[in-house]
Write a structure and sequence with these properties.
Elements: E1 2-4, H1 10-20, H2 27-36, E2 38-44, E3 47-57, E4 60-68, H3 77-88, E5 95-101, H4 105-114, E6 117-127, E7 133-142, H5 147-150
Parallel strand pairs: 4-5
Antiparallel strand pairs: 1-2, 2-3, 3-4, 5-7, 6-7
The chain binds coenzyme A (COA).
Coenzyme A binds next to strand 4, helix 3 and helix 4.
């Protein structure tokens, strides 16, 4: 089941984030995301096992963060969560942007499956725990077949 994130989900969501990210968002950032962004969670057996945070901006949106608990990855939940979260966006965006580490093959493949493609490379964008930096791939998904509306 996919539903909007609530303040009571922050603990569970933050726990998942800490398992998968080297520089995790804080609980305060998740608490803020509940009211500021379109934040969704996916449940299995009434337990939160993933989340997705989308930021609507005018007639576009940014995918800020998403994750599935490592114990539940590879079962189609990330795909389902992202597809449905995009459908839930109330601003009906013409395009959605995201940034992802070049080494994050599972995420890049998921985004391609959902219809995103690379438009740019931002060099040395992400910090690594060892002090080195990693490039970011910028991806976009066009949400309209009406090309004219993308250039108005
Ligand atoms: C990226 C992530 C959300 C994918 O979630 P998931 O539930 O495991 O993904 P799904 O099972 O729905 O897979 C959907 C598609 O993603 C791709 N994918 C998922 N895991 C993959 C892997 N290990 N290797 C390659 N491709 C993979 C595949 O294209 C897959 O489609 P397919 O099953 O038809 O081949 C999950 O790996 C994750 O939480 N990673 C850590 C956090 C993260 O990197 N978030 C994104 C950046 S903020």
């Amino acid at each position: 089941m996919i539903r909007l994130m609530q303040t009571s989900d922050v603990e569970a969501v933050s726990h998942i984030e800490q398992k998968v990210q080297s520089h995790p968002w804080t609980k305060n950032q998740f608490a803020e995301a509940v009211t500021t962004y379109q934040s969704t969670v996916i449940e299995q057996d009434e337990k939160v096992v993933g989340f997705c945070i989308l930021q609507p901006v005018l007639d576009e949106a940014n995918l800020l963060l998403m994750a599935i608990d490592p114990s539940q990855q590879g079962r189609g939940l990330g795909y389902q969560l992202l597809e449905e979260s995009i459908q839930l966006l109330k601003n009906n965006p013409v395009q959605i942007f995201l940034e992802v580490r070049v080494s994050n093959t599972p995420a890049i493949k998921l985004y391609e499956k959902v219809g995103f493609h690379q438009i740019d490379l931002r060099k040395n964008y992400y910090p690594n725990p060892d002090g080195s930096r990693e490039h970011a791939i910028i991806m976009v998904k066009a949400c309209t077949d009406d090309f004219a509306s993308l250039f108005k």
